[in-house]
Write a structure and sequence with these properties.
Elements (H helix, E strand, L loop, with lengths): L4 H9 L2 E9 L8 E11 L3 E10 L3 E12 L2 E7 L6 E8 L2 E7 L6 E9 L2 E9 L6 E11 L1
Antiparallel strand pairs: 1-2, 1-10, 2-3, 3-4, 4-5, 5-6, 6-7, 7-8, 8-9, 9-10
C-alpha cells in the first residue's frame, strides 16, 4: 500500500539541510553533553533518509542518521548513532510528530524517539529507561533550523 499523500507531504517538509544542537547522554546513567549538529535529509514519497554528525568540542564526534519508510500510516526503519549500534524504528505520525519505538536487537534495550517538524524547525528527542531506577531519562534533545 503506498504512502498517503499527507505522509508524502510531511516527509517532503523534512527534506533539506539542518543545523543546530542540544544535549545527548551516551548512556542513560551519564550526565548530558552539549553538542553541535549538522543534518542533511532527503525525502521521497515513501522514504526519508537523514544523515549528519554531532560533535562536542574535541571530546566526541558521532555520525547520526535514520532511514525511514512509510507504508500507509506506519513508519519503520533504522537509526544509527548509538554506541550500541544500529536500532530498528517503528511507529506512526500524530500531527507534526512521528512517534517511534527504538529497539537495539543485540541488547534488548528499548527507547522512544519523537521527530517533530514545524516549518523551518526540526526537533529530535529520545527517551530511555534508566538501567537502575527504570525512570525515563531524556538521552537526546536536539533542535535544528533549516539552512
Amino acid at each position: 500500500m503506498p504512502a498517503h499523500s499527507s505522509e508524502a507531504e510531511f516527509l517532503k517538509s523534512l527534506e533539506g539541510q539542518w543545523a543546530g544542537g542540544g544535549s545527548i547522554r551516551l548512556k542513560p546513567e551519564q550526565e548530558p553533553v552539549n553538542v553541535n549538529c549538522d543534518l542533511s535529509s532527503d525525502a521521497l514519497a515513501e522514504r526519508l533518509s537523514m544523515d549528519g554528525n554531532c560533535s562536542a568540542m574535541i571530546i566526541m564526534s558521532r555520525a547520526i542518521g535514520a532511514d525511514l519508510s512509510v507504508e500507509g500510516a506506519t513508519y519503520s526503519g533504522t537509526y544509527t548513532g548509538s554506541p550500541r549500534g544500529p536500532a530498528s524504528l517503528s511507529g506512526n505520525r500524530s500531527g507534526d510528530t512521528v512517534n517511534l519505538a527504538v529497539a537495539w536487537p543485540e541488547t534488548g534495550r528499548e527507547a522512544r524517539m519523537q521527530l517533530s517538524s514545524s516549518g523551518n524547525a526540526l526537533q529530535i528527542v529520545t527517551t530511555e529507561a534508566h538501567p537502575q531506577t527504570g525512570e525515563p531519562v531524556v538521552t537526546a534533545q536536539l533542535s535544528f533550523e533549516r539552512q
